[in-house]
# Entry
Amino acid sequence: MSPASSNVARRRRRLAIEIKDLLRELSNELSLLNHQVGTHLELKDVDLDCLELISRYGPMSPSTVARRAGLHPATMTGVLDRLQRGGWITRERDPEATDRRAVTVRALRDRNAEVFHLYSGMNSTMDDVLADYSEGDLELVVDFLRRTTTAGQSATATLAEAEA
# Structure
């Protein structure tokens, strides 16, 4: 290997390490932000996570929420009880289900403003950050984040299968 290609390989390895380190740091910072948002809303971290899943992908069954959140169904019951008591979700009978006991969980949209307000500082800052990038840069970032998210989902599924 030539000295020039060796330098390129070393720089690429250093950049890859820096990206992985920064992703871990970002994950930690977002966890801290979510914890602060949950504290302001009087929600446990797991409750906020489940509320996000229900808001984003719902309505859905409690077992679907549990599976997406990686929680045991019994734990999910407690989470849903707290969210319902807090006025964040509603449980409704599923009229299309063959089992008359089937329930669908749906987020109550009238509380969204509270959540959006608490994330508004981060969203405004992100708008400022993204304004510095070209459309091509943003497409690259979107591709990177999409592929990184898929890699995370795959790693999570692999660990969950190993646990089962």
